[in-house]
Write a structure and sequence with these properties.
154 residues; alpha+beta; 4-stranded antiparallel β-sheet; 4 strands; 29% helix; globular
């Protein structure tokens, strides 16, 4: 699978809303996987501080630079037993009001993190979100020879 908007959409991902607007989106309650998608393929500017969460989750800029995946637009792949709840936790974590979603925290050190999109896909009956997440990360690694940027850290 390619990790373009078109390929993600064709494989069943929906939403593609700004993370900050995900509260108003109709995120399903059930299990699934989600991706954080950055529209630009240009290397981002990294912020020196991470304002997400209630504790300091800052990663040195050198560490972020070394984990950046050139050309990739998917910057994080996550799983959820309850998509609506998990995406809400991630949104609140990014807003600095909760510390219940440390995975993918490096997204919030991207200078353009306010513009990232989140998309989700409900897993089919009998399909495990954990297995689906592992499969997607494996496909990403096959294409980019690396895990997604924010799946490395945090």
């Amino acid at each position: 699978m390619e990790f373009t908007w078109e390929a993600l959409h064709e494989s069943g991902f929906v939403g593609f809303v700004r993370l900050s607007e995900s509260k108003a989106a109709e995120v399903p309650q059930g299990p699934g996987v989600y991706v954080v998608y950055r529209s630009s393929t240009v290397r981002p500017v990294f912020l020196p501080e991470n304002k997400a969460g209630l504790r300091d989750h800052t990663v040195p800029v050198e560490g972020l630079t070394g984990k950046w995946v050139e050309g990739a637009q998917v910057v994080y792949i996550g799983k959820a037993i309850r998509l609506r709840r998990r995406i809400g936790e991630y949104r609140r974590f990014g807003a600095g009001t909760a510390d219940n979603h440390v995975g993918g925290c490096c997204v919030f050190q991207l200078a353009d993190h306010a513009d990232v999109l989140i998309a989700w896909r409900v897993t089919a009956a009998g399909e495990s979100p954990e297995d689906t997440e592992k499969e997607l990360i494996g496909q990403f690694k096959a294409q980019y020879r690396s895990r997604p940027f924010a799946n490395h850290l945090g």
